[in-house]
Amino acid sequence: MHSDVVASRSAEHRDSRESRNGSTPHLDSVSLAIIEQLQEDGRRPYAAIGKAVGLSEAAVRQRVQKLLDQGVMQIVAVTDPLTVGFRRQAMVGINVEGDVESVAEALTDMSEVEYVVMTAGSFDVLAEIVCEDDDHLLDVINKRIRALPGVRSTESFVYLKLKKQTYMWGTR
């Protein structure tokens, strides 16, 4: 897949709706337009973005850096896991006894865990896991996730075929 902007997913594992200083950043229409341009093509030149949104290349560069610094977005290469050696993906529903946040935080530290969300409903936490094969997935679930203090139960949803994965939701 091509380079893409992944809005609101952070390497620092902070709440995806808050900037680094703890407040929700205000995004004007120009910043939103820049984000949309980068979601279409994360390698789009700043000059081309500037032309599309009515700013100079330097102004776009500054805006993009501010959006990155605030944690509003990341510019990353999105891959197809199958093509880079990860043959097994699963969503794991986790029921927790006690502090849900401590379990969610522990999950964020696992390299195989790509996505963690605390939920209301049947599960306290959902975690998306990308592994090399079934043995690797079993090891992650059985020996690492189930071993976390507070994990009461898990339910695994193994992906048979990924039909759609996109980060093109725009800025509605």
Q: Compute the number of strand runs.
A: 6
Q: How confident is the prediction overall: mean pLDDT? A: 86
Q: Radius of gyration over alpha carbons?
A: 18 Å
Largest sheet, in brief, is: 4 strands, antiparallel
Unreliable spans: 1-20
Strand order of the largest sheet: 4-5-3-6
Percent of residues in helices comes to 25-40%
Spell out the helices and strands N to C: EHHHEEHEEHE
Q: What structural class results from the helix and strand content?
A: alpha+beta
Describe this structure in words.
The protein has 172 residues and is α+β, with helices and mostly antiparallel strands. 31% of the residues lie in helices and 23% in strands. Strand 4 and strand 5 form a beta hairpin. The strands form two sheets. A four-stranded antiparallel β-sheet has the order 4-5-3-6. Strands 1-2 form a two-stranded antiparallel ribbon. Residues 1-20 have low confidence and may be disordered. The chain has helices at 29-40, 46-53, 57-69, 100-108, 134-145; strands at residues 3-7, 73-77, 88-96, 113-118, 125-131, 151-158. It contains five helices and six strands, in the order E-H-H-H-E-E-H-E-E-H-E.
